[in-house]
Structures are given as structure tokens and as C-alpha cells.
Design brief:
Order of helices and strands: EEHEHEHEHEHEEEHEHEEHHHHEEH
Pfam family, one: DNA_methylase
Number of helices: 12
EC number: 2.1.1.37
CATH class of the largest domain: Alpha Beta
Radius of gyration: 22 Å
Strand content: 5-15%
Helix content: 10-25%
CATH topology of the largest domain: Rossmann fold
GO biological process, one term: methylation
Keywords: Methyltransferase, Restriction system, S-adenosyl-L-methionine, Transferase
InterPro entries: C5-Methyltransferase (IPR050390), C5_DNA_meth_AS (IPR018117), C5_MeTfrase (IPR001525), C5_meth_CS (IPR031303), SAM-dependent_MTases_sf (IPR029063)
């Protein structure tokens, strides 16, 4: 039986801008501490979650005692620790390398979980960690947890965000475990059915079969549902030099209505944030050459541009996986950004955020480069929420619906350059090595 209404507590490791933090908050958790070593990402996280503690520090230099001391956790029993150790060393998109130094961060995730001793843990990573030699890292992680008194779901699953209400095909591994004495959570069942899914049944003259249960699920919102109400940014000259403007939105879909906070969502337990519903943010325009725009215009929806290989979104389909690119110490490479389904241009950060299930009040860095990286590196909140609900169920509690409402005011946190962010976060050394430019 579920106990009285309360808010369980959590810790987010490798927090980034806060996709998993938000998803767990929406499920009913208070994420009292979040650790993020990039000072720009940490500052954005602090902006969006001003009522909790953001610790700007590498997990390699962090201890459970420090996390407890710097936050409101103290000596309380933590309900869940979650996080996605940087995954580029395992990614199917690049050169998978077991010796990549980023892979060692998985071991630090394990160390901090064992140090903090939560009831549950959730580790997110790319599908590539389940394939080939990379699987050794995953199995070693599971074995370490089991040796230290944790149960682990050995039937680990790769979940597609499109099955949980996100208009984007994005597959990620989730490894779930719990302390002895607790029941292992189940993986969330699909909540939605991706649109335009072709039947695998062969044509037959036999009588029609009853529809499968999955066909009774509501459809995943498509690209039109996600961004169809956002006015065309090229109509606003102000967006050439800043990232916000006051607009009249179009008629929203139910999905967009939720992200615009126009409808009440019964199972959303997040704290309310104040924001102006006529404000369009994170929408700085991208300048394209006439040649590029002509190529984009000639690219059919659902196909890729022949030169840039940018994918053009289809209003009736899903977005492809939004990727992050690389940090400055790894070349500062920009990942391909989808082409808008109607206008021959790349989508804006806000449009990407909609396709990732971020609400409109959630803010990103004012530069396109950092904004897209923060989205591409994050877990879609609705996917994180689906996983977090399973933890809530295993805890056998009913989350408390918060009455508090917060204003997000200090926009300076969204505008820092790296040196400014390092100074604000009181870092004594460079958090990330600067890119070396060729002379």
C-alpha cells in the first residue's frame, strides 16, 4: 500500500543542463543535489533549479560526504541516485574505444552510488555499451554492484524516447538497481505508439486479426505537434542579435499545450515556474547562405541534404536523434542540426527543446552552440519521468503535488562565457581545456 504523500529525495550525477533532473522532479522527486563539472552547464542547471544545490565539480574529485554536506541532504537516507556518465567512448556514432578516458567515469558513478548508499540507482548510457567489447564495461559494473549488496536488473533494456511521448527516435540504455531488501523496479511499458509504424504482418486473404495491444496506445506526438505552433523566426529581425522575442503563438497541439503550461497535467509533480506565455526564448536565428538555403529547400522532408547530410524534418514523422557535438577540448565540433520541415533553415534551440520534451519555461545558454549541446547531451525529460515513476512505485509512496511557484530571474547565468562561468563557480583552474586554434 502506498504511504502518505511525500517527496522522495534524489541526486543527479553528470547533470548537464538538467534533463534527468527535470524528469525525476516531474515524477515527484526532490533532486536536492546535482553534480556537473562544466561551469556553463552547471550555471544553466542552477538557473532552472534555483531551489536545489548544483555542485560544479568533476565526479572524479567528489565524495558522497561532500555531496551531502553541500546540499540539504545531510545524513538523510537517499531514495535514488541517477546519472548518465559521458558516453562518447561507447557511442555507435563515433570510434568506440574502451581506453577512452571518458569511459572511466562509469566507475566513478559506481563509486559515488556505493558511497551515497541510496535505495535505488539508475544509470543511463548509449546503446553502444551493450554491444561488442563495450559490453564488458557494463557487465563489470553490474558485477561490482552485486558484490556490494545491490540487486541489478540483469535484463537491462534500451528504451526509445518515442515510446514515452517524445517526438524523437532516441534509444538509450537504462541500468536499474536497488539495495537488498527493496524490490527491483520494472522497466516502464510503452506509453505511446510511434506514428506511421508499418505493420509487419504479411498480406493475407484470411480474416483480419484483432489489433495488437500496442496499437491501442495513443500515438507519439509528431514534428507538427511539437513545433507547429511556434511562429517563423525569420519574421523577427530581433532574433538576429538576441535569442528572445514577444510573439503570438499559433494553435497548439495537446503536446505543445503541455509544454506551454496551458493545460493541467495530473501526473506532473514538478514545481511551477513563472514565465510569460507570449515570450519565445532560445530562438536566435542561424544565418545561411543563399546556396545553402536553396539546397535545404530542395531537400524533401524525411531526406538528408546531399552536402551537409542534415536531415529535413517531416511534419508527420519523428525527429531523428538530436546529437550534442564535442566540447572545446575535443575540437568544438558541431553536430548536424535538423532542417526545419517548412522553412529552408536549421531548427532553433527552442524547436529542438520542444522535440526533446522540454517545457517552454526551461532555458538554455543564449548561444546556439551551447544550447544545442545541452539538449543533445540530455535525456528527454519525459523519458526520464517514465523511468522515475517506476522508482516511485517501488518506493510505495504517493508524490506530493507542490504548491510553491518560483521565478527564474537571474538571466546572467545563461550568458556566461567559459572564463566568466569558471569565476562564478569559484573554480581555481580551467574546468575544460580551451581549443587550440591553428595559426
Amino acid at each position: 500500500m502506498a504511504s502518505s504523500k511525500q517527496r522522495p529525495i534524489a541526486v543527479d550525477l553528470f547533470a548537464g543542463a538538467g534533463g534527468m533532473t527535470l524528469g525525476f522532479e516531474q515524477a515527484g522527486f526532490d533532486v536536492l543535489a546535482a553534480v556537473e563539472f562544466d561551469p556553463i552547464h552547471a550555471s544553466v542547471h542552477e538557473y532552472n533549479f534555483p531551489f536545489w544545490t548544483t555542485i560544479c565539480k568533476s565526479v572524479t574529485d567528489t565524495t558522497g560526504r561532500e555531496i551531502r554536506a553541500k546540499s540539504a541532504i545531510g545524513d538523510r537516507d537517499i531514495d535514488v541516485v541517477f546519472g548518465g556518465p559521458p558516453c562518447q567512448g561507447f557511442s555507435l556514432m563515433g570510434k568506440r574505444n574502451l581506453d577512452d578516458d571518458r569511459n572511466s567515469l562509469v566507475s566513478h558513478f559506481v563509486r559515488l552510488v556505493l558511497d551515497l548508499k541510496p535505495k535505488f540507482f539508475v544509470m543511463e548510457n548509449v546503446k553502444g555499451i551493450t554491444i561488442g567489447k563495450q559490453k564488458e564495461v557494463l557487465h563489470q559494473t553490474m558485477e561490482t554492484f552485486k558484490q556490494q549488496g545491490y540487486q541489478v536488473r540483469e535484463d537491462y533494456q534500451v528504451l526509445n524516447a518515442a515510446n514515452y511521448g517524445v517526438p524523437q527516435n532516441r534509444r538509450r540504455l537504462f541500468l536499474i538497481g536497488c539495495r537488498q531488501g527493496w524490490n527491483l523496479p520494472d522497466y516502464p511499458t510503452a506509453l505511446t505508439q510511434p506514428p506511421n509504424k508499418k505493420s509487419t504482418n504479411k498480406k493475407s486473404t484470411a480474416r483480419k486479426r484483432k489489433p495488437a495491444v500496442e496499437n491501442l496506445l495513443p500515438s507519439t506526438p509528431n514534428v507538427r505537434d511539437a513545433i507547429g505552433d511556434i511562429p517563423e523566426v525569420n519574421c523577427y529581425p530581433e532574433l538576429e542579435y538576441r535569442d528572445w522575442v514577444m510573439v503570438d503563438y499559433g494553435t497548439p497541439s495537446f503536446y505543445a499545450s503541455q509544454l506551454r503550461n496551458l493545460v493541467s497535467i495530473e501526473d506532473n509533480y514538478a514545481y511551477s515556474r513563472e514565465y510569460n506565455p507570449q515570450l519565445l526564448t532560445c530562438s536566435r536565428r542561424t544565418k545561411h547562405t543563399a546556396t545553402t538555403m536553396a539546397r535545404f529547400a530542395a531537400t524533401k522532408p524525411g531526406k538528408s541534404d546531399r552536402i551537409s547530410h542534415f536531415y529535413r524534418l517531416d511534419l508527420k514523422g519523428l525527429c531523428t536523434t538530436l546529437r550534442a557535438g564535442t566540447a572545446s577540448n575535443r575540437g568544438a565540433h558541431t553536430s548536424p542540426r535538423p532542417i526545419h520541415p517548412i522553412t529552408p533553415r536549421c531548427i532553433t534551440v527552442r524547436e529542438a527543446a520542444r522535440l526533446h520534451s522540454y517545457p517552454d519555461w526551461f532555458m538554455f545558454h543564449t548561444t546556439k552552440w551551447h544550447g544545442f549541446r545541452q539538449i543533445g547531451n540530455s535525456v528527454p525529460p519525459l523519458l526520464a519521468q517514465a523511468v522515475a515513476r517506476q522508482i516511485i512505485q517501488s518506493l510505495a509512496i504517493i508524490p506530493r503535488k507542490p504548491q510553491e511557484k518560483y521565478a527564474l530571474a537571474d538571466r546572467e547565468l545563461l550568458q556566461f562565457k567559459m572564463t566568466q562561468a569558471e569565476k562564478y563557480q569559484h573554480l581555481e583552474v580551467q574546468a575544460i581545456a580551451r581549443r587550440t586554434r591553428l595559426k
